[in-house]
Amino acid sequence: MVEIDADDRPVQPLPGRYRLTRLMQSFGVLHSANTAANILYSLALLLTLSRVLPREDYAIVVFLTAISVYVQPLDQVVGRVLFAELRQSFTVGKAPLSYVKLLLASQMGVIAAASFGVPALMSLWQGGTYTISNALYLLFALMTNFWAFDLQSSSFAVDLSSKFVRWSLLHRSCQFILLGVLWVSGSFLLFAALAASTLTIFSAFAFSRLIQRIGTRALTEAMVPWTGRFHVARTSLLSGCADLMVLNVPYAAVSFAYGVGPTLVIFDSVMKVARLVMAGSRTLAEIALPQHSRLVVASDPAAANRLFHQLVALCVLASAIPAAVVALDTPLVFSLLLGHNNVVPASAGPVAALIIIATGLYQPASLLMSFQSDPVAIRRFAQIVGAAGTVSLGTIMVLKPGPVGLLWDFLALLICAGLAALVYGRSRPVPRTMPENTTA
User: Fold this and answer.
1) DSSP E strands: which ranges in 170-227?
2) Residues 6+ apart with CB under 8 A from 225
């Protein structure tokens, strides 16, 4: 049996001295390195902006960054639609080239319009002057979502995984250099202009290579009924809404119930650690995604489920390591993160550790499930998460438990969502009458 790599090429047996080189250049290692670089860049960007910008300007940057965070689920929805459109049809020699080009180009146009329109509305609302640096920074933030979700998902679908992570590593290296420019020059306008233009150039290049890849492999233009596309989009939206309920809506509920104060800081601090761990779990899931989706397309549910269970188990075990560190010395961990602003009580250690472990269950199971685009499974998953979220968040807003009680309440929601994803993320045999675009 010939092994196939992430770019759909046969892997030839190599002499022993070359195996380490191939391993270091493999998709798994490169994607892990890219995730590590992204985490380091996020921390470096935070530290640099907070020290270079005046307090008022930094507050605006935080607001613009929040906009990009809250529209991430929309990018995830589009990315899943594109993956579902491309994955199966690409493997059988057909791809919806015109539709993909139209959707990606339209989204880039919407991003450009929002980037320059939102700061204009801000200036009108606050009675200030229009600042082009804010528009450029928002363009950079929104294009980051576009790169990480839309272009990455599309590239993975057409077996450009290894090439895309190499482009990502090169782009991230350029952005580190631009942080140095910001630190030395102190010019936010210069940094925003260079960061936005660099990412736009990389995105245009990746888009062109993506279209070229489809054109090279496609035998015919896939003719997918628009009703089928509507069902794929609806399924992806349901999956995105479930993510919103688990990872985003709790912030709004906590802010509404407790206001902006110590309780919100405690919840946010625990989630910051959990999100760092989730980035690792997501990376492991994305490494397995091309092989998992290939098994799903080949209608081999037994092999797909075996890989699914192995990946979830690996992520849970990996998450247990940082969870143990948090449980053993909670004050030290959060003092390093928050300094003199640390208000996380030592009693929050056990529940914070369990939240971290629960993310190792939820993240890989929900990600692989969402990219299967199984409408029945995702609908049931979304219904369970919606019901559990309503009860959990309703309890927070009505009973207003203490900070530790709040974390236990959130843990219950996360475990419920993780178990639902574990159950409905399992692959099922695909009926022969099912439309091609309903399974990734």
Assistant:
1) 220-221
2) 435
